[in-house]
Amino acid sequence: MSDMTARFADVVGSDHLLTGDAIPEDYSHDEELALSPVAPAYVAKPATAEEVAELLKAASESGVPVTARGSGCGLSGAARPIEGGLVIAFERMNKVIEVDTTNQVAIVQPGVTLTELDSTTDEFGLRYMVYPGELSSSVGGNVGTNAGGMRAVKYGVARHNVLGLQAVLPTGEIIRTGGRIAKVSTGYDLTQLIVGSEGTLALATEVIVKLHPHLDHSATVLAPFADLDQVMTAVPAVLASGLAPYILEYIDNVTMAAIVHTQNLELGIPDQVRDSCAAYLVVALENRTSVRLDEDVERTGELLAELGAADAYVLEGGSARRLIEAREKAFWTAKAIGADDIIDTVVPRSAMPKFLDTAKGLAAAAGGAVAGCGHAGDGNVHLAILLKDTDARKQLMTDIFALAMELGGAISGEHGLGRAKTSYYLKLEDPAKVALLRRIKHSFDPAGILNPGVVFGE
């Protein structure tokens, strides 16, 4: 312990290395609900890629497990450390290095939060459009989990918005992948391999992100439906209409009631409509001009009425913003109503009605319930699992994940497997595919120090 303390302190300085009881409790977990916190032995706060390289080289040589940490707001336990391990916290590597308006990219360090990045790029009329619902999340965390969010229906997930990386391998080598370029067909795409790898292959120390022009005019349409199937039928119709919403969300009535209560929202929906609807569709639109936006809003209302909506309410200004903010905080709402776990399964849009109906039936048969919302535009379903019995809950989640995979989907759309969902993945995934991933992992990390337990189990 003392030898490693001295070695890590030589790299980052004793002021930027925490050990033992000096490590705050916050470093022992992320926001995953079911896992117990684990205290690491060391927390190092590097300032440069070279310091990260030296930390990883030392850890590899001594077999010390390493967990990377950005803002710690992940939902699958990927930022929960290993006992006796090292946490590399990127809070000092928090600079926006450059905003390149010609190529419409920004070069940022991994500890930059989305709030910090937005405030910088807004000065140039540009914006990074990955929006996972927690603006304190870091760009490095976005890279690690392939973060998505509500804007993914129009702008894609992190994988579509990360163009290049500077990354450190656990052997201490520093590499660069991709660049300020929109496409590449030269060798294997290491950028996309590292994005979404949850800190198991390499640690990003610089990220080149794509920026988009900020559109000044936006509006949100809220449509209640009497039946959830109607909502899911409406989704492809809205997308096929050419309206190009940048947010297309469904919220079931249980979750909406919880959101309205916990966030003290007033949406102007009459009681009789609210009491008779099963779910809501949220359609957010944007445009360069107010005239074109008004035309799109009018057409959206007409289309939703044709598709069976009880009504369509145009939310403007503060009410629209507060609803979107409340939807972003759905995880905290789920915690407030006593959720025992959270899943973010993804299925093809066409399979959403069957998936949701079957999942609710599975939950009821197990003596529990599911409630939630999701990114209807891309099939990403966020469900709060309400079932106290641990064994019954694990079986229910296995059944729901198996259902999603049977329908052509996957266990996680954006939260990642972390330590919380890996066991389900190993049980349900093709063993040949897992074996191939293990070989890739070994090529990057021969000592096996990067986030052991994530993706491949303990």
From TrEMBL:
<keyword id="KW-0560">Oxidoreductase</keyword>
<dbReference type="InterPro" id="IPR016169">
    <property type="entry name" value="FAD-bd_PCMH_sub2"/>
</dbReference>
<dbReference type="InterPro" id="IPR016166">
    <property type="entry name" value="FAD-bd_PCMH"/>
</dbReference>
<dbReference type="InterPro" id="IPR016164">
    <property type="entry name" value="FAD-linked_Oxase-like_C"/>
</dbReference>
<dbReference type="InterPro" id="IPR051914">
    <property type="entry name" value="FAD-linked_OxidoTrans_Type4"/>
</dbReference>
<dbReference type="Pfam" id="PF01565">
    <property type="entry name" value="FAD_binding_4"/>
</dbReference>
<dbReference type="Pfam" id="PF02913">
    <property type="entry name" value="FAD-oxidase_C"/>
</dbReference>
<dbReference type="InterPro" id="IPR016171">
    <property type="entry name" value="Vanillyl_alc_oxidase_C-sub2"/>
</dbReference>
<dbReference type="GO" id="GO:0071949">
    <property type="term" value="F:FAD binding"/>
</dbReference>
<dbReference type="InterPro" id="IPR006094">
    <property type="entry name" value="Oxid_FAD_bind_N"/>
</dbReference>
<keyword id="KW-0274">FAD</keyword>
<protein>
    <submittedName>
        <fullName>FAD-binding protein</fullName>
    </submittedName>
</protein>
<dbReference type="InterPro" id="IPR004113">
    <property type="entry name" value="FAD-bd_oxidored_4_C"/>
</dbReference>
<dbReference type="GO" id="GO:0016491">
    <property type="term" value="F:oxidoreductase activity"/>
</dbReference>
<dbReference type="InterPro" id="IPR036318">
    <property type="entry name" value="FAD-bd_PCMH-like_sf"/>
</dbReference>
<keyword id="KW-0285">Flavoprotein</keyword>
<feature type="domain" description="FAD-binding PCMH-type">
    <location>
        <begin position="35"/>
        <end position="214"/>
    </location>
</feature>
